[in-house]
Amino acid sequence: MAAPPGPGLVHVEPKQRLTAPPSSASTAATLVLIGLAAASVWAFIDLRINVATFVDGVHNAVAFAARVFPLDFPSFGEILLLCGQTLAIVVLATLLSTCLSVPLAVLAAGNTTPGDTSRLGSRAVIVIARAVPDLVLAIVFVRIFGIGALTGVLAMGLHSIGMIGKMYADAIEQIDNAAATALKAAGASRLQQIAGGVLPPVLPAFVAVGLHRLDINLRVTVVLGFVGVQGIGFAIAESLKVLDYQRGIALAVVVLGLCIVVELISGAIRTALLGRSSGPRGGITGAITGAAGALGRRAGLGARDAERSDEHLGVDPDLTRDPRLRSAAALADGRVGPPWDGARIGGACYALVTAAVVLASFSGAGISVTEAFGSLPRVFDSVGLFLPPETGGLFGELLVQLLITIKIALAATLIGVVLSLPIGALAARNVAPSPAVANTFRLVILIIRGIPELILAIIFVVITGLGEVAGAVALGIGGVGLLGKLVADSLEEIDPGPERALAATGAGRGQVLFAATLPAGMKALVAHVLYLLDTNIRAATLLGIVGAGGIGFYLLNASRVLEFGVVTTIILMVFATVMLFELLAIWLRSRF
Fold first, then answer.
1. Which of 93, 191, 404, 491 is least surrounded by Cβ atoms within 10 Å, i.e. has the fewest?
2. What pLDDT, in 10s, does the model give residues 401-430?
């Protein structure tokens, strides 16, 4: 026990620590992030990305513009045919990935999986699907099924499981399990619990994720066109092979318009399905959690008690008008389903339109089921061509090119972050000085999202010449479309309380941004940057097919000269690299 202070002395209590000291894990994660940032700066400098490079390429840009303009658009009928075929392939690929992702997500989610083995196995399948680039899958499927739409459907569909399956599993884990528990207590089987208590509250988010993947797959078709997937991407590839830039860039402009139209339509549908939350938990997460929680609490209530329960529990009356929520009360009252009101009729119309689009896609893609099954006997012969892995005496060169690919991804991530933070912040409604400014920068992000990175790479290859500079700059600018949107959404979804409190003290807009807004969204921003890096690792491989540097150039050449053993070696090298960064990103996210 400490001795009391002597006469004339004042006893001072030791300072109390208001926050817990950082753990060793968080410190290690911070050091790793600093290391990644330093590596990105090193890659940017080592690739010699500077203003002088673009100044030297001005005359190339002028010469390229002279060869491009005037644009040579095909006939309107041909444009409709190409767009229809492309959309059909994209719709079928997204449908395939969605159908396969739902059972995988149920097995991968902690609250619906039958056991740890099923969960880990499903998560492993999802990670592997995300780690294998769709271009690699397309090269394999072209060998099995030949040039056509089926190759694109399978390549994009299987690769998309990596994203859709993960987001579906995360959505399932975030719901309130009260509804499923109530059904279990009533004697429902596991399948009935999932169908009645799990899938209804997450269905809007499932549809929204599927629509978001549809947008991504539409841009991916441009890349896959270079390896034989039919549609507008194949037409662009054929034009560029004969250096017909007028037709190739004209078709790229068509892709841009198509991407913007699809993005606007899918965005409107996502907004209609998910609505807008006024609280801090906006967006998909807020919609899922709010709807699921209300559904679970109401699962055991009768219709007569529902209204009083809503007021007592603080449930938004508008939320309880959702037919999915009323269905739980209907079951408790002995009814088999919600009434056929306007909302349910609208949902039925959505389902009918979706079914019509899917049927039209089967027709528009021109996929023959008979030919597909007829190609199955070639699977084993084709797979045998890829085994065993071979190096072709190029292993050292392949390692160098893999390092260049990583450097391109790191430099592109740095460029994307530097550009996306101000653009994304000005696109956020709670940061922009006016709604007009926010809408303007939202439009800028939308336009950039609509331009496939491959087209940007082609343009920068012409300006800066063949090499990794073109790939890094193309990916960096293209990353604004992804990261800028994520930054804007994250800043809009933070709790507005600290911002208002700081503004009430007289703080300026900049002070509020740096003292309240950015700190509140920092964890989400770190996760988004890691996601961009993960995406750029795969995309950097793809851009090599148009001379933008890296190992992708060797991958495409090996497939063209039928050196499939070398293709396998490159695939394994890319897979190991992507998996390494994937595991690193998972570890970092768990520490933050």
1. 191
2. 889 889 999 999 999 999 998 898 888 888
Query: Contact, 149 vs 93, CB < 8 A?
Result: no
| Helix (H/G/I), strand (E/B), else coil: 315 | coil
Q: Do the beta carbons of residue 227 and residue 142 sit within 8 Å?
A: yes
Residues 365 and 510 both lie in one domain: no
Q: Which of 385, 419, 442 is the last residue of a domain?
A: 385
Q: Is the pLDDT of residue 50 over 60?
A: yes
Tokens of 402: 């893999």
The larger pLDDT score, comparing residue 533 to residue 509, is at 533
The least confident of 360-364, 368-372, 460-464 is: 368-372
Copy the structure tokens of residue 65.
């513009």
- CATH code assigned at 217: 1.10.3720.10
> Alpha-carbon distance 584 to 580, whole Å?
6
User: The whole model's pTM is what?
Assistant: 0.73
Count the domains in the chain. 2
d(CA 516, CA 512): 5
φ/ψ (deg, to 5) at 175:
-80, 160
The answer to whether the beta carbons of residues 320 and 301 sit under 8 Å apart is no
- Which one, of 327, 217, 186, 201, lies nearest residue 273 by Cα? 201
Closest alpha carbon to 422 in 300, 312, 513, 288: 513
Peptide bond into 70 cis (omega under 30): yes
Contacts of 252 (CB under 8 A, 6+ apart): 222, 236, 451, 452, 455
- pLDDT at residue 449 in the model: 82
Percent share of the chain, pLDDT over 90: 9
Q: Does 132 share its domain with 42?
A: no
Residue type, 23: S
